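Replying to the earlier thread about multi-chain prediction with a worked example.

Input:
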Amino acid sequence: MPLSPKSPGRAARRQSVGDHKRELILGAARRVFESEGLDGASLRAIAAEAGYTPAALYFHFDSKEAIYAEMLDISLGRLADAVLAAADAEAEPAGRLRAAALAFFAFYAENPRDLDLGFYLLRGGLKPKGLGRARDERLNAALAVALAPIGAGAEALGATPEAARLLVVDVFAHAVGLLLLTHTGRIRMFEASAPDLMRRYLDERVRGLLAGGAGLPDGRG
Amino acid sequence: MPLSPKSPGRAARRQSVGDHKRELILGAARRVFESEGLDGASLRAIAAEAGYTPAALYFHFDSKEAIYAEMLDISLGRLADAVLAAADAEAEPAGRLRAAALAFFAFYAENPRDLDLGFYLLRGGLKPKGLGRARDERLNAALAVALAPIGAGAEALGATPEAARLLVVDVFAHAVGLLLLTHTGRIRMFEASAPDLMRRYLDERVRGLLAGGAGLPDGRG
Amino acid sequence: MPLSPKSPGRAARRQSVGDHKRELILGAARRVFESEGLDGASLRAIAAEAGYTPAALYFHFDSKEAIYAEMLDISLGRLADAVLAAADAEAEPAGRLRAAALAFFAFYAENPRDLDLGFYLLRGGLKPKGLGRARDERLNAALAVALAPIGAGAEALGATPEAARLLVVDVFAHAVGLLLLTHTGRIRMFEASAPDLMRRYLDERVRGLLAGGAGLPDGRG
Amino acid sequence: MPLSPKSPGRAARRQSVGDHKRELILGAARRVFESEGLDGASLRAIAAEAGYTPAALYFHFDSKEAIYAEMLDISLGRLADAVLAAADAEAEPAGRLRAAALAFFAFYAENPRDLDLGFYLLRGGLKPKGLGRARDERLNAALAVALAPIGAGAEALGATPEAARLLVVDVFAHAVGLLLLTHTGRIRMFEASAPDLMRRYLDERVRGLLAGGAGLPDGRG
DNA sequence: TATGAATGAGTATTCATTCAT
DNA sequence: TATGAATGAATACTCATTCAT
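Result:
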């Protein structure tokens, strides 16, 4: 029950309405981006899809790039959710590691536009030198969260922190490489299956870990 | 009677003059692209750098995308040259394999714009559908040439053709992944060195081949 | 019964509160205008500086132009204050005349934005027709006050009312012309000092008055 | 008779066609500017008036400001023509001086938009700090040409070069001031006639010159 | 083969203002 | 009295492409 005509819920309601509109716009942006790609995702197009005037978007976002950046935030959040959920469904460290890495791979395999978005924004896309220190680090942090289960799994299997860190980069890179080969259609020229390759790569690395570090690039030899 | 005004040599000369101009334009395109990136490499800018009017370029190329596509042709040719030269400098199969793969990696590490170009064209960049069947296959063939020494090395070390083929994809993917991590600056967040990682990955794969297939994802187990 | 909830003081208080807010807004407008110029003094910017939402300003002013117009009112008030104070510091008519005119000149030399404001509003700036009869006359009156000491000085020195009136226009015009030459940087091309020129002009006119009207354009000659 | 199918007249004809189009555009710009003022003289409006697409103007001019700047060039050229013609119609130095100054005054009295243009461009109007050194000096030079007959007349009447220079500034400033009072409608509040005042001011200055420097602000008398 | 001229569609962003709440 | 949200019109400028000459 409201305490006064101007109840404390008013500001909150307004806030949530505002958030909702932001989400509507981001949803529209995502749809446009999904179907037209980054080049087609102009501010006009996004506004039109959202049922707004271009000018209206500026009430909710500072610029087109700000919309992109927020889309990337969300994308990385989803990625992290998917990875963590997959890892948590497994009990054993090896299983967790594999599940996390495969979830990472699957996320981008199923959402190729998110891959585009990431590459666009993480590179020259944004005007003022990348995205500004702050945002860059936010994104790094989000990425680190999504990759954490892989490193944790490796350590649980006996890898040193440094070895685990390098394994994460390796897995990250291998996944990204395979995703891009898929994304650009080049994988076809090798008649290979990217998911299969990803699985095999992981199996090998996990086997290496279980064998006491053998299989790690800088293993005992 | 000897060479008439419209001698058979005339067409040839004309042809070669035309080729020369194409090369001038492509050189200009490369320079612009190198210094301004894909966004800055507008037709106007390329024409200006080449000392032409924008309209003039249309006598030599069908469209801006056609210029890009031809740049990619050339880029892949250079890549192949670099890879083959590196492989030929080694005598042993294992050395040839490593040298070829590292040359591939180095080529793109040193020419990041070529990486951009490849990704742009191999994906959404081109309007109708990719680049057209013919061109797509030309590019695949050029890529195949550049990667061939890697597969050949693997087979020389005893891998079956299929195993060799998969190794090529793996190495390709790993290299591409590491290159992108570098290109987007993400490698920094792991405090890792992409060239080192590439070398380690290759060492491991070569060791696997030498050990009789162990180390290959689908190895003896 | 004493002051009821809706006491007579309430309206007054409200009025004065409203006036205070107007002043806050006008102060903000002045600051923005001072540092950003007319182009930068958008309603949004003024509102932001004042700690308001743009929409809120419409409770206090009819339009952006109304804010400008009121700024001009204030500006002319300050001008009059400066001129009168300078004149009052002198005892002799000639001194008063000179002091007033120089104060006028100095005011705009030191506050060039006020000059901009005046010209903007007094000309095409305002949409309907100038500023509306009423406002136009208010501004004329304010200007007349600021210029009065000059005319009064002239009459005290023996000029007829008509001669005094013409002298005022002349001095006004000369000052304005010199101010604009300064303001646009053109004075530099003559390697001249506007304040010096203003002083000389005044000296000459005063001398003319003292000599019995000689020096006035339509003097006895 | 043309020397060849590609006659030497071709380039010249093209050039003159190009110049003609520029003039058409400048004419359109002038008309728009005349009827809508500087604010209304948008690139779109100019293009529309000229029967062009906005983009087409960029073939002929680098920017909107470049169009403005060229309008000002032309305006100053006309001013100089008018002033020189008026001066040349007189034989005696005093007559030349007066005629030149009155022609200057009349030019702007009759073409108030040219006054706007000058003030706009000579001040903050142009983006890169004024107009760039070069253009600024071109305009100064044009202005100097238009004002030269006044200084020349003064020297012919015996003024030292410095005295002549100062007289030019004075006359310039007085004219500008009176023009602005007229332009902003303020002259009305004094029930005065700007042309009359200009004439009287000149008479007085000329009289001063003839009297051997008396009348000059710093004259010895 | 090359140019000058032109187009039409597109870009992100800013503005003063209005209105329901 | 004030806000958040929204509008519609406007801004200068860029682009790849076409076409008559």
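The domain at 64-221 of chain C is CATH 1.10.357.10 (Tetracycline Repressor; domain 2).

Feel free to reuse this layout for your own posts.
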